[in-house]
Design a protein that fits this description.
Strand content: 25-35%
Oligomer: single chain
Radius of gyration: 18 Å
Number of strands: 18
Largest sheet: 9 strands, antiparallel
């Protein structure tokens, strides 16, 4: 058995939710010098550029989670403010992007999966995105882990979808069928100038938490059923976020998947799989 096949086999075998729960407890612990030592080790291991952080001193962070979701210095990620430009929502790297074809999207070479399954299983939630575009962006451990709005939007629905917690790194994406539609995830659907926009926050091994700014921690605890929440899109209680505003965050990193409808916007020519992304930079152009 090759090393890659062994790594995949181990992921199927290991108790991923239990491991993630235990790592989550450690990441949330205020352990003083131990926490600082762990943060320093992590910075060294993943070559993290702390000069970009608002608080570059590892001792500033009381928990590993505080460090992992660290804010950046003001102005370090300039926002593409042009009204016809969709901005990157995160720091990371593009895994795949392209068309939603017959309700399927690309996971990796030779692997497609169902957009409807990704979004929680309901036709009514999937219909606006059929024939549209999707993009999958992977956040590595070294990346900034706050998620921002790519366009102005008003929240209309949030869906929690229970699932597994496989790793979402490129090796796993190439070898585990339906990876993103089988992992635990949180789906946020916004009304925007390009129509409905879906932002899917996918959990992974040792992802201790997925949060949104309007609901706080959505998971953990992990559930067994799909849950959805509808939100007013008009009036005083509407949740409207401007392009570049924070909408959520990962504790211990994962993947964000975007989807929008047909003929709404086109990816810029320099955007393709393996492109490194920086939050706020141009991603796609809205059609006239």
């Amino acid at each position: 058995m090759s090393l890659d096949k062994f790594k995949i086999a181990m992921q199927y075998a290991m108790p991923k939710h239990f491991i993630s729960h235990m790592v989550g407890k450690l990441a949330a612990a205020k352990a003083g010098g131990l926490t600082t030592a762990l943060i320093k080790l992590f910075i060294k291991q993943y070559k993290i550029d702390m000069s970009e952080a608002k608080y570059p001193d590892p001792a500033h962070y009381k928990t590993f989670n505080e460090f992992f979701t660290r804010p950046l210095k003001e102005g370090i990620r300039p926002l593409a403010e042009e009204s016809d430009i969709i901005a990157h929502p995160v720091d990371g790297a593009i895994s795949q992007l392209g068309d939603v074809v017959d309700g399927q999207i690309i996971q990796a070479k030779g692997h497609d999966y169902s957009l409807q399954a990704l979004l929680g299983g309901k036709e009514e939630d999937t219909a606006p995105f059929l024939g549209g575009k999707f993009a999958t962006i992977y956040l590595a451990p070294k990346d900034y882990h706050r998620i921002h709005m790519p366009v102005d939007g008003t929240l209309s629905k949030m869906i929690y979808v229970p699932g597994d917690l496989f790793s979402v790194n490129p090796l796993t994406a190439q070898n585990v069928p339906n990876l993103f539609a089988r992992n635990e995830r949180v789906v946020a659907i916004f009304e925007t100038e390009i129509g409905p926009l879906a932002m899917v926050l996918v959990g992974a091994t040792i992802v201790a938490s997925i949060e949104t700014i309007w609901a706080g921690t959505v998971t953990p605890p992990a559930g067994k059923d799909v849950f959805s929440w509808n939100y007013p899109t008009t009036g005083d209680n509407a949740i409207t976020l401007k392009k570049g505003e924070e909408m959520g965050r990962f504790k211990l990193g994962s993947t964000v998947i975007l989807a929008w409808g047909a003929n709404q916007a086109e990816f810029l020519s320099d955007q393709h799989p393996e492109t490194v992304t920086r939050m706020g930079t141009p991603f796609a152009k809205i059609n006239d």
